[in-house]
Structure formats: structure tokens, C-alpha cells
Design brief:
By secondary structure, this protein is of the alpha+beta class. The strands form 4 sheets. It has a 6-stranded mixed sheet with strand order 6-7-8-3-9-10, with helices on both faces. A 5-stranded antiparallel sheet has the order 13-17-14-15-16, with no helix packed on it. The longest helix has 17 residues. It is globular. The two termini are about 35 Å apart. The model has no long low-confidence stretch (mean pLDDT about 90).
Length: about 325
């Protein structure tokens, strides 16, 4: 089988099991994200694939060849970490060329490869700049170029954007998606941010307490969370309604024009309206929002652009977008 295959992977630290019998496949040319909260075992799993942590049990292969006992430097895998780990005494080109020098590539080929990669990551004019003169986002692009330089057969990225601010993280996630595909890179990408995982990856493996609980494309995971805990982690609100467990997406609720409260406190099957009471009003990412107490649902956040009479305690109707509701 082509690419990476892990069967029954176990990683232990003393008596603590960090990865508990994981199966994982990364096909050639595919980007797979390991997504989960801190402490779920995703970084331990990535380190085991790299050879930085031993597998206590399980089988790891690349193109069908056993990799379990192969040392880190002979696996042909590249690594990129959160802090980039760049060399401050080298300029941008000096950092990118490092792996090529270690491999003994001819100097002319080194210069050509460095120029190609700096162009790929949008830093074509930065070759002679000192690392200390770069922004955090620029430094991560240099780290990515350095990791790609030796053409690794698998690139392992451990929370590469988590130290950046949200706006820059969102921007670079989109660029990472494009760069990895332009380079034809096979990659395993660790993150705790589902938006980042959904932007960068072809498939996402959702981890919890050392196990993979669901794998699929971003669209598949979002449309069909495996359970309530997965739905909450992905950003849904989970409520009970008429004996059903419903996952409500963050933008599925909007404040609707007020009508007389009928006291029903449930979804009207024809109008998809709920009755509620405003708890507070806020403003987030350019949109007015209202925290609304809905009978049986507790407090939920609804978009309230253009709505009036949103003082705390005032009654409102909340419109439910059916496509934003998943029954678990």
C-alpha cells in the first residue's frame, strides 16, 4: 500500500498510555490533519511516526516497508514545529539551504532549489535578510521552505501556526493549503483548531484520549459528527429537543421579528422559530449577537444584525436554519 500506514499504534510514557491502538493511513500526495484538544495524544502520535518516540506496540510502514526500527534521519520524513527552530545566525537562504548542504547537493543545484522554494512561499526577495528582521508569519514560511527543501516523502507539521495571532493564522492556513499542494507534498498535520484543520487538510482524523474517534473529509466531519462530544469540539451547541439530540451550528440561529409569545418553547416545524428571552447583547467579528435564553435549550447565541428591542429581558423569536442542525 502506498504512503504511510500505522496499525495498532501505541505510545506509552511509563504507566501512561498517550496513544492507544491507533490505525492511520496517509496516502501519497494527501494532507491528513490530526485534530483534537491538548493532551489527546496527537503530538505523541506524530512524534512516533517521525521516530522521535518509540512505538510500544503496532506496525508502521511506508509503501509497505517496515519503518518501526528505522532511525529518524533515515526515514526520509521532514519536520516542522510550532517555533520553527530557525538558525538566528543564518540569513533566510542560509536556513533554507541547510538540509541540502547536509545531503551534499551541488552548490548550483542548492541555489536553484532555494530560489524555487522562496518563490513558492512568497519570499522570493528575502534570501539575504536576517531571521531576526522577519515577522512571525515570515519566519514560519522560512521554516516551511526549509522543511520542503530536501523533498521529504512525508512532511510532519506539529501545531505550526499556533503561536501566531488569529488573523495571521487564518491567512497562513490558506497559504499552507496551496503551498503543500503546489509542492505535491504528503503531510501529516497536527492542530487543535478545527478551522485550521478543515482549511489545510484533505482528510481529518479526530482524536480523543489517545484514540482516533472519527476520520473523514472536512465536509463529512462537519455534516455528521460522530457523537455529542465531537460536535461540541467542532463548535456546535448540543441540545435536547423532543427526545432528540441536536447539534446546532454556530451560525444557525438568528433573531427574527417579534410576535406574541405562545409559550411553546420548541421548534415550530413549519416556521423553525423558537421563543426566547434576551440575556445580553454583544458584538463579535463585525456582527451584532444576542445571548438568548430558550426554554429547554438554555442560553444560546444568535446573530442579531438589524434587530431592535434587544435589551436584556426582552422577548424575542429565534429563527433556526434547518441546514445548520444535525441530529446525533
Amino acid at each position: 500500500m502506498d504512503g504511510l500506514q500505522l496499525r495498532g499504534g501505541v505510545v506509552r510514557y511509563g504507566s501512561t498510555t498517550a496513544v492507544a491502538g491507533v490505525d492511520l493511513r496517509v496516502r501519497r500526495g494527501e494532507v491528513v490533519a490530526l485534530l483534537g484538544p491538548s493532551g489527546c495524544g496527537k503530538s505523541s502520535l506524530l512524534r512516533a511516526v517521525a521516530g522521535l518516540e518509540p512505538l510500544a506496540a503496532g506496525e508502521l510502514t511506508w509503501d509497505g516497508a517496515d519503518m518501526t526500527g528505522v532511525p529518524v534521519h533515515r526515514r526520509g520524513f521532514g519536520l516542522m514545529f510550532q517555533d520553527g527552530q530557525l538558525f538566528p545566525h543564518r540569513d533566510v537562504a542560509g536556513n533554507v539551504v541547510y538540509g541540502l548542504q547536509m545531503a551534499g547537493m551541488p552548490r548550483a543545484a542548492q541555489r536553484e532549489r532555494v530560489a524555487e522554494l522562496l518563490d513558492l512561499v512568497g519570499l522570493a526577495d528575502y534570501a539575504t535578510r536576517p531571521i531576526t528582521a522577519l515577522s512571525g508569519g515570515e519566519q514560519q514560511r522560512v521554516a516551511l521552505a526549509r522543511a520542503l527543501a530536501p523533498r521529504p516523502r512525508l512532511l510532519l507539521l506539529d501545531e505550526p501556526l499556533s503561536a501566531l495571532d488569529r488573523a495571521l493564522r487564518e491567512h497562513l492556513a490558506t497559504e499552507l493549503h496551496d503551498i503543500l499542494r503546489a509542492a505535491g507534498t504528503t503531510a501529516l498535520y497536527v492542530t487543535h483548531d478545527h478551522d485550521e484543520a478543515f482549511t489545510v487538510a484533505d482528510r481529518v482524523a479526530l482524536m480523543r484520549t489517545g484514540q482516533i474517534v472519527q476520520t473523514g473529509t472536512p465536509a463529512e466531519l462537519w455534516a455528521h459528527p460522530v457523537d455529542a462530544e465531537a460536535a461540541r469540539f467542532l463548535g456546535y451547541w448540543v441540545v435536547q429537543e423532543a427526545g432528540r439530540t441536536l447539534a446546532i451550528s454556530p451560525h444557525a440561529l438568528t433573531v427574527a421579528p417579534l410576535v406574541e409569545d405562545d409559550g411553546a418553547g420548541h421548534i415550530d416545524p413549519d416556521s423553525h422559530l423558537l421563543q426566547g428571552t434576551v440575556v445580553s447583547v454583544g458584538f463579535a467579528r463585525g456582527r451584532t449577537t444576542a445571548r438568548v435564553a430558550i426554554p429547554g435549550w438554555g442560553e444560546q447565541t444568535a446573530t442579531a444584525d438589524g434587530a431592535t428591542c434587544l435589551d436584556a429581558g426582552s422577548p424575542v423569536r429565534v429563527q433556526v436554519e434547518p441546514r445548520g442542525v444535525v441530529e446525533l
